[in-house]
């Protein structure tokens, strides 16, 4: 074929190809979805409406759980004007194999600038990593030997959880003239005014039990994905305002930092009623509430955990250890939780994306469910913003909350499976069973 003919044929081929593309586009626009999808809008309407109403309820009627405040800071103390005299405080620190973190945390307790008398009891819960020696060396280096007492925990009796037994051992050493007991974990780094803040809060608010959700460590990708969501879910389960409302019976605490009146726990039976508790902090809150205590729960902005979770497996095992306990080992609560988490965190995303795709293909009957799904997703994201700000994380991470909710649902199901299979776990080298 002559070159001139080939040149004349090129535009014709281009026109032909463009015509083919145009026809293909028309055929895409005329795609007919399977009958099951075309018949789904009524179901999508129902599910999206339920989900949207659920989020509106959570937004307005769940104690404004997502507005957790600025936390217990020095700015709120007003120069301790709520305290005329500072009572004696004794801290109990259960410690099992904590030698690697004590260098970061114990000095923050021993160097408290508390105006009253303050003493620390570190209960070594049968550590095999030299925890007691490390604590003793830290106190000697800081010249704070007079402020620290190291106690070896007695052998663990049957039916007792290790941490609860360690706290019970520590209670036996608390002097009777101490007004408050500070229960704090070995991985918590305190600001130098922490005891003053806690006592001032207890006195000013007339609370017998003050607990702080400390800032958990967020550095690895898994921590950034799951830890803020963990605090968010905890606050939704136990709205902080409800805990502080004496008219309600919501009892909760964050075990890393609890200040409690001594006479509420140093009783004839002490912590025996919660001896086997895996979720010891909330169990303790319920126990003291049953003994007439008034509660308060808030954020500890510069109270921090130095415990690191570098992998998904570490966080997974931490949650699976106690998630099914939280549900009282109930199959029905597990099923309800799985359905509820799916409706709240997965359905808005799925329906919004499906609605956008189907509307673009001309299926206008998906406009309503798509809009409701988008509204639910927006409310969900908005309620997650305050906790992201508290953790100083980028706001784009609101889009990760559905993924975190899905993973926590799987962890809860796995926790139930472990219980049903009677698979014993281990915590810091000590076997335990959920029972």
TrEMBL record:
Q: Which molecular-function annotations from GO does this UniProt entry contain? A: transferase activity
InterPro entries registered for this protein in UniProt: Glyco_trans_2-like, Glyco_trans_2_hopen-assoc_HpnB, Nucleotide-diphossugar_trans
Against SUPFAM superfamilies, the record matches this protein to:
Nucleotide-diphospho-sugar transferases
Q: Where is the Glycosyltransferase 2-like domain?
A: 91-265
Stretches that traverse the bilayer: 46-68, 331-359, 366-388, 394-413
Alphabetical UniProt keywords: Membrane, Transferase, Transmembrane, Transmembrane helix
One Pfam family this chain carries? Glycos_transf_2
What protein name applies here? Hopene-associated glycosyltransferase HpnB
Q: Which organism is it from?
A: Alicyclobacillus hesperidum
């Amino acid at each position: 074929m002559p070159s001139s003919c080939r040149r004349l044929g090129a535009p014709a081929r281009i026109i032909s190809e463009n015509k083919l593309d145009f026809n293909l586009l028309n055929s895409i626009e005329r795609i007919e979805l399977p009958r099951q999808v075309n018949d789904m809008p009524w179901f999508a309407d129902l599910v999206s409406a339920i989900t949207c109403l659920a989020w509106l309820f959570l937004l307005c009627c769940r104690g404004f759980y997502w507005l957790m405040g600025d936390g217990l800071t020095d700015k709120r103390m007003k120069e301790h004007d709520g305290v005329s005299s500072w009572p004696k405080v004794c801290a109990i620190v259960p410690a099992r194999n904590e030698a690697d973190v004590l260098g970061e945390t114990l000095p923050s307790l021993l160097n408290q600038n508390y105006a009253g008398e303050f003493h620390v009891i570190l209960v070594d819960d049968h550590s095999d990593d030299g925890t007691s020696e490390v604590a003793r060396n830290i106190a000697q280096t800081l010249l704070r030997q007079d402020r620290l007492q190291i106690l070896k925990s007695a052998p663990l009796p049957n039916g007792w959880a290790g941490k609860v037994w360690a706290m019970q051992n520590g209670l036996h050493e608390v002097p009777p003239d101490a007004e408050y007991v500070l229960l704090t974990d070995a991985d918590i780094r305190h600001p130098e005014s922490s005891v003053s803040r806690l006592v001032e809060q207890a006195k000013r608010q007339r609370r017998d039990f003050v607990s702080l959700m400390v800032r958990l460590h967020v550095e690895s990708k898994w921590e950034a994905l799951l830890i803020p969501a963990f605090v968010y879910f905890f606050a939704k389960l136990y709205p902080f305002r409800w805990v502080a409302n004496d008219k309600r019976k919501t009892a909760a605490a964050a075990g890393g930092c609890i200040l409690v009146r001594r006479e509420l726990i140093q009783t004839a039976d002490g912590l025996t009623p919660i001896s086997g508790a895996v979720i010891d902090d909330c169990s303790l809150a319920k126990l003291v509430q049953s003994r007439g205590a008034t509660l308060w729960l808030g954020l500890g902005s510069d109270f921090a955990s130095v415990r690191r979770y570098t992998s998904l497996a570490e966080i997974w095992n931490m949650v699976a250890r106690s998630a099914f306990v939280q549900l009282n080992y109930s199959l029905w609560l597990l099923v309800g939780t799985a359905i509820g988490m799916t409706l709240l965190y997965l359905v808005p995303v799925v329906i919004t994306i499906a609605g956008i795709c189907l509307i673009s293909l001309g299926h206008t009957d998906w406009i309503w469910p798509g809009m409701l799904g988008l509204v639910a997703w927006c409310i969900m994201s908005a309620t997650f913003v305050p906790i992201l700000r508290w953790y100083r994380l980028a706001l784009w991470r609101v889009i990760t909350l559905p993924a975190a909710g899905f993973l926590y649902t799987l962890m809860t199901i796995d926790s139930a499976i472990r219980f049903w299979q009677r698979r014993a776990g281990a915590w810091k080298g000590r076997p335990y069973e959920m029972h």
